[in-house]
TrEMBL record, chains A, B, C, D, E, F, G:
InterPro entries registered for this protein in UniProt: Ntn_hydrolases_N, Proteasome_alpha, Proteasome_alpha-type, Proteasome_alpha1, Proteasome_asu_N, Proteasome_sua/b
UniProt subunit comment: The 26S proteasome consists of a 20S proteasome core and two 19S regulatory subunits.
Protein's organism: Emericellopsis atlantica
Protein name, as recorded: Proteasome subunit alpha type
GO cellular component: cytoplasm; nucleus; proteasome core complex, alpha-subunit complex
Residues in Proteasome alpha-type subunits domain copies: 6-28
Pfam families: Proteasome, Proteasome_A_N
TM segment ranges: none
Keyword Ribonucleoprotein: no
UniProt-listed SUPFAM superfamilies: N-terminal nucleophile aminohydrolases (Ntn hydrolases)
Keyword NADP: no
Localization terms from the record: Cytoplasm; Nucleus
């Protein structure tokens, strides 16, 4: 009978140099509903499928504004996400108060990476059980970061995490070349299309279960940020309709939605 | 012989990314007697079945006022609930003293969510073994929140937690459309009817085992809160009588109680 | 071979959401000799059987005055009871010093409930292994509370805890209607009668093994408290004689001692 | 194969509500040589058999003066006893310095009871492995207390703890009526006789292995304390001779030493 | 069935005096992609293969500037590397602020060695799961250090760590005599050639997966440092082309790339 | 298969009330080479066999001066002994500084007893693995104490601890009557003779492996202390010669060295 | 199946009074390459074989200067040695700053012994896995100490620790009489010869793998210290040549190198 002796805490290496509890914590991310992020030169969008355990509840929140220039999408343990998002809000606010301007997105992401690492090297704590996509803009341009429970953070042009997110990533990879110069509308449609790929049969994106968040630069401006904005319910209808039409025309193949 | 190696504390992930101790703590909620909450645009009601272990005791308290604008219903470990309700009272009081007005319900709920999460990420502690329904009003309107031992909090229009609460939830789902515009009286009757659905054969709601709590806006006012008020004993008789009649007329089918 | 994996500390939930160490601690209460409490509108009495491990010792103390208006009866680990009773004395004294009047009984009971809960949620501690009956009077009237190792507290009109206390509770339930308006003398006799029910064959209540504690309002006064008073040895003889006679007349049936 | 899962620390209850480590610690008391205490209205005596592991050592000390009005006899772990006796000396001294008079014996005993209880409710500590008999006088009269590792303390008129102490207790029980009014000399003889009962065959009480400690009120005074005094070696000869004679006359039956 | 009892934490020696958790942590280094470092008298170069888990991500960063005169290459857990590199930046900055000049490389390396050792001698922590190559210049000349999770640090003239790094080390050993006097360009080409040796079949170094970092003394100066500079993407093309040509001419044998 | 569950730490009692780790720590004393102590009315001597693991080392030190009036002999873990002897030196020095005179030997011994007891009642520590003989003089006369890892301390007239010390104790017991009035020379010879008894065949006491320490009162003075003095190498030759002669004359029987 | 229950931490005694983790830590010393130390009346020399895991690395450092008058040789865990040597440097420096002169070698050694002992008596730490030879001079003359992981320290005239050090010790023992009056050159040659004895077949001492450290008194001075000096590479050639010649002449027998 096989008995793994090295997977009970995050302070024990396996003989192969692996830390299983960190790996297991990344499985918790896969338990969450899928979120997708895409960055163009001008915008970053986050799209999420909101789960609804029972009809009575409003749908679970998946997107959160952190600061004017920055928002996150979460997949995994919601209450762990609250801790991290509160921490990010405090960091961002503190930076504004100290320096009089928005915190660079990479610095903000670095802070949660460092915070999360501590929990992977101290007995009696556990890694956070949540993954984040962080969307933001700053003087360096638009940014999309993935944060993992291990504390690892990585900048990407497109990403999907959560249940069945592999399908979304496949879609993103196929269309990666279209992102850099895409308009805000196009980006959103790509994001929703990627979400759509993850649905199990008979499920559809609806105005109830879909959320979109966008930040970016103002039209015609190189460095004026548009505040992070959440779109829900009726606001997402136009885009859902658009991808629905587009999908009908592209059934069965990797979609080429762009104009 | 199956031996689960990952379910002894809340700081260990299973290989599938689950934290069993959090899941087990949510079972503790199901050990408590059922409580129901419903929110309309103007009111929020909490209804509870009070257990009575032996005849000598007064019935176990299930509803507690937290502040003028806010009350809770509990299901699970009573002494854990005391800790959380004392904490909420202090938070609400502190807010009043600092800002001169009632604490927004969402903020209050956020505080206990954050407090509870700590116990799910630190060895040597355990998650709280109690679930709460939080009813309140503030400038944003009426609110009904569910709090779970994991620290997760969620806003809903109707909810039931505790033993056999699934039956109550089924009732609420069937009647969900009637809640938003229901009067206070109607809301209470819906709540009691939902409670009634959870009773095992031969059990009935009585003036002894039933408690009702209500908060909301004053008649004809948009933002003047009615203080959270508990109704017990004789005060609940009228409503019990009402649903009893109504039930006789609706035996055997999903009730349509509304006028 | 069945091996319970979840019952070694109070910070582990079983898969059913139970915390076995809390349940086991309540077994410790059943190891103590029985104590009975009854409240009327005017008085609260505590009656106890004192054990005597060997002839040389005076009988183990079971009743303790906490403050002028309040006393307790204990069942379980005597040295745990000392800790709690010292704590209560300090709380009560502190309240008097700060506010210039007696601490409300419910507040006092709340304090020990909160203190005891801590030990049920922290690794390395254990729940208290003692149950208490708290008798007191304050502006709200007479009070009888039960305190359990879990930290749960409950107000009752009559209660019995400790070894074979179920027999006493049965007696109390049969006679519950007589308590509210009973005189002090009658209450005491009910308490002793309830104690008597728990005796194993050939054992009797004697002036050596019986203790009685009473608090209440002064004759003809609504809010003047009579200090908590202990009756032992010869002082309890009259009541023992009374119930002895009464019992002879009522052998074999639920007693109706009242006038 | 039976495997007790609940007996490794003092913070785990067994399913029956027992704490085995506390019970085991009380076994440590039985590993110590026997000590006997008896209280009359005027005096309290402590008698001890001193063990002598090897001829080279002076005999192990069993009796210690704590303060002028108070002394102890120990059975169990000598180095644990040192900790407790040092603590008692500090308490007694502190009381004298603060209040200008001797500490009431019951208060002193209460302090060690409370101190010992802490070790029964904290992981990483263990109960003290020693039992004490505390003899003292104060304004309330003479006192003899037993202290147990659990923190339990009890006032008695006669007591014996340590190896084979049951035999001594049996003697004491038989003669209990003679103690209250016995003279100091008589009390000592009763104590030594009780010690004698615990001896295994061929062992005798000698001036080397016997120690006696006495405190009490001065002849003809109601409240003037005689300082706690230890009698060893030649000083105990007269009493040993006396009981030896008396014993010859009473061979084979429960002795009635009294005049 | 063999069961290793000594490999669960870094505070337990095996009977042979080994600490397995330290050894296992060094396996974590081998999980990272390979990095190579070479020092000449005038320059130090770091070369890395960047992994790309999926197409969407930019490649994982492997080289980091610590201070003007110093940079690192990492292999192993990225989030552990972040902690160490942040620590090094703080140390280097603090030294500059305190002494007004760059921190000697050996001192900087000593600091992380000492920091890492702590984690190998304290229960509840784990060794860092990352290896570093530290390249820097100071008054003593050029320096290349290897840092291991054990806290061991060692100065070398050439080194390679990470997956399949043995092949790179073999290349370095064959060409060791050429390093001391090599030009910057030659050093880089040696580094890339060493990297190339570690590739599995069909893999190639590309401008996307290759990174180069260089520090050294300014042309014609003995002690003026050239700031640590990273070369990526198009900047590495010339060198990749160079080794590609050279490789064609040297297929099948240990390369002698030098002029 | 017998598995002792109670012998892994000093905070667990066995069901018989024993603490095995304390008992095991006393075995560590038996691993040390033997030391002997004897007290007369005027002097205290310590004699030791020094082990020599290899020829290169000077012999292991066994005797240490603590203060002018006091020295110790050790058997067991040398580095534990260092901790205790440093502690004693500090205590003795502190006493001199505070009170202007030497610390009473019993107080000094009491301090290490108390210090050692702590390690027997706290998880995560272990009892000291060393036994001490403490020789000293003060106003009460000469003193010889034995200190055990349990924290137990005992005054004796003669004692031997360490490997095969039973043989030495047997010698001491046979000659115990000669000690009280023996001269310093005689005491030393008794000590060496006792040491000699513990030797395995073919081993002899030599000037290299024998150490002697003496303190006492100055010739003709009742309370002027002779500083603790160590005799090694050539200084012990006279005594070794003396007992060698004496032994020749007494071969085969318990020696009667005295004049 | 044998299962050792007592060897997992340094705070558990085996039933025989042994602490296995301390013994295992001393095995770690044997994992290090061998170092040799020899003291004459005028000088102390340390000689070491430096290991070279791979050709690229400079050889591992084995000798370190601590202060002007003192140096060490290490065998075992290099990063543990760094901690101890940094500690020694701080102690020595602190002593110089406080007292204006070099720290006595014995005091310095005592400090690390005391520091190391702590790690053998506290759960959650481990003994240091390194042995040291400490060479120094002070007012008392020349000193060579061995430090062991247990905290034990011992003064010797010659010593060797590390892998296969037994062969070196045998050499030293054979030649011990020659050391006291040997010149510096002779001492070094003895040290190197002892090192040579530990080599496995076909291995030779070379200028790359051999290091020598020397401290002592200046020529013709009794108390002027020569600063601790390291000799490496070409500097050791003369001595290697010398012992090589000498060895040729003495092949096959215990060498008598001395003049």
């Amino acid at each position: 009978m096989f008995r793994n002796n090295y997977d009970n805490d995050a302070v024990t290496f396996s003989p192969q140099g692996r830390i299983f509890q960190i790996e297991y914590s990344e499985e918790a991310v896969k338990q969450g509903s899928v979120v997708v992020g895409i960055a163009s030169k001008k915008h970053v969008v986050l799209c999420a499928i909101k789960r609804n355990a029972e009809e009575l509840s409003s749908y679970q929140k998946k997107l959160f504004a952190i600061d004017e220039h920055c928002g996150i999408a979460i997949a995994g343990l919601t209450s762990d996400a609250r801790v991290l998002s509160n921490f990010m809000k405090q960091q961002a606010l503190g930076h504004r108060l100290t320096y009089g301007r928005a915190m660079p997105v990479a610095s903000l992401v670095d802070e949660i990476g460092t915070k999360a690492q501590i929990n992977t090297q101290m007995y009696g704590k556990r890694p956070y059980g949540v993954g984040l996509l962080v969307a933001g803009v700053d003087e360096d341009g638009t940014h999309l970061f993935e944060f993992k429970p291990s504390g690892m953070t990585e900048e990407l042009v497109g990403c999907a995490i959560g249940a069945r997110s592999q399908m979304a990533r496949t879609y993103l990879e196929k269309n990666i070349d279209a992102f850099a110069d895409a308009s805000k509308e196009e980006l959103i449609k790509h994001g929703l299309q990627a979400l759509h790929e993850t649905l199990v049969q008979d499920k559809e994106l609806t105005i109830d279960n879909t959320a979109v968040g966008v930040t970016g630069f103002k039209e015609g401006s190189k460095n004026k940020a548009e505040p992070f904005k959440l779109y829900e319910a009726a606001e997402v209808k136009q885009w859902l309709d658009a991808i629905s039409e587009s999908k009908e025309g592209n059934e069965g193949e990797g979609m080429d939605v762009d104009e």
